[in-house]
Each structure stands twice: as structure tokens, then as C-alpha cells.
Amino acid sequence: MKTPITLEGKTVFVTGSAGFIGANLVKRLLTVKNIRIIGIDNMNDYYDVSLKEYRLQELEKEAALAEGSEYHFIRGNLADKDCITDIFSTWHPDIVVNLAAQAGVRYSITNPDVYIESNLIGFYNILEACRHSYDGGAKGVEHLVYASSSSVYGGNTKVPFSTEDKVDHPVSLYAATKKSDELLAHCYAKLYNIPSTGLRFFTVYGPAGRPDMAYFGFTDKLRAGKTIQIFNYGHCERDFTYIDDIVEGIIRVMQGAPEKKNGEDGLPIPPYAVYNIGGGRPENLLQFVDILQQELIRAGVLSKDYDFEAHKKLVPMQAGDVPVTYADTEALEKDYGYRPATTLREGLRKFAEWYKTYYHI
């Protein structure tokens, strides 16, 4: 059972609100009547900050047009406990959506410190703030929704990946921090009765996305005449999920919190759940690259006579990568009546068109 939550008239705290998913979620939330959105982002330089600034500017335009809705942006760090405490004491959020995290599998191998700071300490600060939101008998946080990742499935060979599968063998520090977040959320749900839902995202892509993701990085390199590397000799499969589908999934989950109830011992049964959000249609990387090439040519990002084969190299698997990601979305369909539907070609077409406009090609 889910406890229904209305978004109208609520205060929603979105962390990572200048990030790819966060900015798109805020944009969608601004269409809700009489909603107040508090966003936070540390604007780090993991990738080009100008892209984050662009997203913020787009949100400012949307907020100016939104009738009866508010968006307040705070430049801050989740690892700064005083900052998070102050936000909760000032704004008293009804719903918290924690999307802020240090992303990237490969980067976690060379820069582990930032993953511990953001993904563990930062998330701990969010959990503590949610816990204390009930102090003094206050209504407190109605629902904590947080980002996990398909990376938690690690070396699992059974596909599609189900939330019922064991995820005890991460192959990157990034994956280990995301699994740790799920464990922390479960603990706080049990101890303090905080309704919490984790979302395991599968390879999110789309316009104004992260430049470190393959589709964006490949495009940059192809435009510059450089060679792209396709790992595992092209024998990888990814469950790509278009950004609008991810946002729709988050919105639906926000409005249905795990039910609070006690067990036979009189103690809370953890109001806790985890869901996959993925397309459920894994694509071979070579096929993905072929579609990307076609759409870049169609949009005019690459010339019609571009020699694609001369700029492609098949290479071995990289440390931290997995050969296949594939989401079992049955639980999401059952509980929220939703399954992502955007095809890879549709999504890459929208990305290619945005890329042409953004870079004035």
C-alpha cells in the first residue's frame, strides 16, 4: 500500500537541482500549482560548469512564467551539515528528493574522496535532517525520494535486473556508495519511520545531459575529428532511459509514499521501497552508436559524408564497467502504473537537435 501525497501547496526540497535530472525535475514541478521548490547544488567542476549555469538560467525563465509557484536556489554543499540543517529549519520541506551525488563510475577510481563526501556524508546529513523534521511533534517530511543507480547490480549475470536480486558485489566505489545509501535509508526508515523510496536509474540521457556520458562524449569527439573508443569490442548492452521518462517516474513515486505501519512487536515496519527506472530494452553499443551517428547527421551536427568508420575503435572492457544493464520494471508498473516508453532513436534525435542549437552549429 502507498500513502497518497498531493504536490499542490507543498514545499519540495530538490538536491542537485542544477544537475541533469534535478533541473529537469524542477522544470516539471514548476507546472504544479502553488508549489514551492527549494533547490541546492554545489556547482562543482566535475564537468563544464557552464552547462549547469545554462540549466539554472532555463529554470529562472520557467520560474518567472510559473503562476503561483516558487523556485529558490541555494548554492551549497550537502556535506555542510549546518547548511542542510538551516534549509530544513527555514523551509520545512514536505517532500525531499535527493538527486545530488558525485556521479561517474570511472572517476570514482581516480578521485574516491569526493564520492565519500557527497554520496555518503552528504546523504547522511539529509537523513539526519529528515529525522529531526519530526522533532517536537512536527508533521515533518512526508516522503524522502533518493537516487540510487543501476550500478549497484555490479557483476550480476541474471538479467533483467530485479530489485529482489542481491546486490552485494559492487565493481566500483560509485556503486558501493549507492548501495550504502540504500542501506542507510532502510536503517533510518526503520528507526525513525521516515517513508523512503530509492530509485535505481538506468543510463539516463537526453538534451543538456552530462558530457561524461557516452552519447555526449562521442558527439564531442566526432565533431572534433577524434576517434571514439567502444568498450568490450562493442559487446556491451545498456538500458538507456530518456530524461523525460525518468522525471515522470520520479513525479509518480513522489506522490505515493510507503505506508507507515507497525509490526507485531509494536515497532515500525520500515516504510521503505526501491524501484528500477529503466527502459527495459537493452541496446547493443554498436547499434546505439549507429543510431547516434544517423541522428547527428540528420540534425546537421555531422556532415552527410562523415567517415564514421575511420573514427571508431573497438577496445577492451574498462575497470569498473559491466557488460550489460537491463531493468526489470514490473514493480514500478504494478505500484505506480508506469513504464518508460521513449525509444532510443526518439531520445537521441532530441539530443542531437538540442546539441546543434546549444553549440550554434
TrEMBL record:
Domain NAD-dependent epimerase/dehydratase per the UniProt entry, residue ranges: 12-264
Signal peptide: none
Pfam families: Epimerase
The entry's keywords: NAD
Domain of life: Bacteria
UniProt cross-references to InterPro entries, sorted A to Z: Epimerase_deHydtase, NAD(P)-bd_dom_sf
Name used for this protein in its record: NAD-dependent epimerase/dehydratase domain-containing protein
Naturally occurring in which organism (per UniProt): Dialister succinatiphilus YIT 11850
